[in-house]
Amino acid sequence: MKVTEHLERANGKTLFSFEVLPPRKGENIKNLFSNIEPLMEFKPPFIDVTYHREEYAYRKRPGGLLEKVTVRKRPGTVGICAAIKNRFDVDTVPHLICGGFSKEETENALIDLHFLGIDNVLALRGDPIKTESHFVPDPNGHAYASDLIAQVACMNKGHYLDEEQEDSFATDFCIGTAGYPEKHFEAPNYGADMRYLKQKVERGANYIVTQMFFDNEQFFAFEKKCRAAGINVPIIPGLKPMTTKSQLTMLPRTFYLNIPEALAEAVHDAPDNAAARDIGIEWCINQSKELMAHGVPCLHYYSMGKAESIRRVAAALF
Ligand code: FAD
After folding, report:
1. Residue 124 C-alpha to ligand 1 middle, in angstroms?
2. What are the residue ranges spanned by the domains of the chain?
3. 302 to each of 11, 17, 117, 187, 317, how far by Cα in Å?
4. Which atom of ligand 1 is nearest to the CA of 187?
5. Among 5, 7, 131, 204, which is least packed by CB within 10 angstroms?
6. Whose CA is nearest to atom 11 of ligand 1?
């Protein structure tokens, strides 16, 4: 079922969802299942599975020459979505990115997802890989998420890259897109970012999931600006409990966000990581409660591979 149908059926009740990372190459899927199992009691209607792009590395060959090799640490998003769907009877949302994909490869991935009965995709641009100073699209790929969204929307109308299929061969994906309460780091200003977000919705995005934030005022202001700009699709806030002291610098560095002073000071002064985690979880519970009272349709939690702190947050709320 589509994410938007789940939201409609909830009839005003806030739903719980979360995202998982594909296991590292060679790891057993059982580890992933055992991370998901404790969260199933909170009845997520859908689970997101992130996509991790290839990276390049240089290996020294005999004789000293350097060889450029492709390294993929967490492949298999499509298969993992199908495995989770079958194992837990829950809808899954694969993340699809522009980076590293040609339009043909994207079309093939979408055809596979359609065959597997997966009804949703979260369409993203992806970040530059470590060896790039800025995002470089595949020569035959998409430069922005809005272009990827347009491709999915075209397939939903039965238009494929090389031919126009009968209507009966149209896919019917529900398309999610990313929104940034604190602005995407590359956007020259908030207004420009908002215009591009609106373009993503006009091209076919059915709902928005936000980047994580730790100050609800940022979300409330973002939601207000979206509505004022005529963006009327559901907006799902993304949250993450802070779980270690080192995240005080890692999260702003990686996701370009602000940590409110009260949280930053409390985590900084915590005697150890266990105490820091308790503070982070408590903060996330309070954030979630306020967002639920505000009437958000769903709370989406970033697990970043660690489910226990999400379980503690959910146990206090759902
Ligand atoms: P876009 O919407 O394309 O925007 C990128 C930048 O370009 C923005 O600054 C925007 O303002 C600007 N822009 C947009 N359109 C135009 C235009 N037409 N002309 C000029 N400028 C434009 N990354 C992964 O690799 N894998 C994942 O699984 C993943 N999951 C994510 C889930 C969520 C909920 C979020 C919020 C992010 C996720 N990311 C993931 C990270 C995401 O790929 C990065 O934040 C990326 O830098 C931007 O992606 P986007 O889809 O928002 O890009």
Report:
1. 5
2. 3-243+296-315
3. 24, 9, 24, 23, 16
4. 9
5. 131
6. 193
Rounded distance, CA 91 to CA 79, Å? 13
pLDDT of residue 189: 98
Cα 126 to ligand 1 centre (Å): 6
Q: Which residues line ligand 1 (CB under 6 A)?
A: 50-51, 53, 95, 97, 124-127, 144-146, 178, 184, 186-187, 192-193, 196, 200, 209, 211, 238
Taking the centre of ligand 1 as the mean of its atom positions, its distance from the CA of residue 153, in whole angstroms, is 18
Residue 50 and residue 19 in contact, taking contact as beta carbons nearer than 8 Å: yes
Q: What values do phi and psi take at 49, rounded to 5?
A: -125, 120
3 state DSSP class of 43: coil
- Look at domain 3-243+296-315 and name its CATH class: alpha beta
Cα angle at 156 between 229 and 211, to 5 degrees?
45
Instruction: Report the 3 state secondary structure along 224-287.
Output: HHHHHCCCCCCEEEEECCCCCCCHHHHHHHHHCCCCCHHHHHHHHHCCCHHHHHHHHHHHHHHH
Ligand 1 atom nearest to 148, measured from its CA: 3
Q: How far is the CA of 137 from the centre of ligand 1 (A)?
A: 12
Taking the centre of ligand 1 as the mean of its atom positions, its distance from the CA of residue 143, in whole angstroms, is 10
pLDDT in tens, the chain (318 residues): 999 999 999 999 999 999 999 988 888 899 999 999 999 999 999 999 999 987 777 778 888 888 877 776 777 899 999 999 999 999 999 999 999 999 999 999 999 999 999 999 999 999 998 888 999 999 999 999 999 999 999 999 999 998 765 655 899 999 999 999 999 999 999 999 999 999 999 999 999 999 999 999 999 999 999 999 999 999 999 999 999 999 999 999 999 999 999 999 999 999 999 999 999 999 999 999 999 999 999 999 998 878 999 999 999 999
